[in-house]
Amino acid sequence: MARLYLDGGVSIKKLQEILDEIDYPVLMEIVDNIWLRDDYSSFCWNTDDNLDDLENGDGNTYSVETFEGFSEYDGYVVVNAHNGCGQTITYFFNKEKEIKI
Q: How far is CA 71 from CA 17, 21, 50, 85, 93, in A?
């Protein structure tokens, strides 16, 4: 399995371009929708950018629980989380879209 190390040489924009070109499932997702963290281990986002649905967990709201904490890189919060199906996915949450409650 290949590993990607973000050491300042790859921007998130370039990473998205690479992911868009790959025609098989990659266990990485860039979230450019509104999101919040309800504690330090749970992240929620809404793909319709609907704040009411995000706050109530309705509509197209999704959530993951992290297990290794998180870090910040290039304007994104980066977390490894379980997707509920036994897989670990790396998520990049756009800091500009964070909702603070």
A: 22, 26, 26, 24, 10
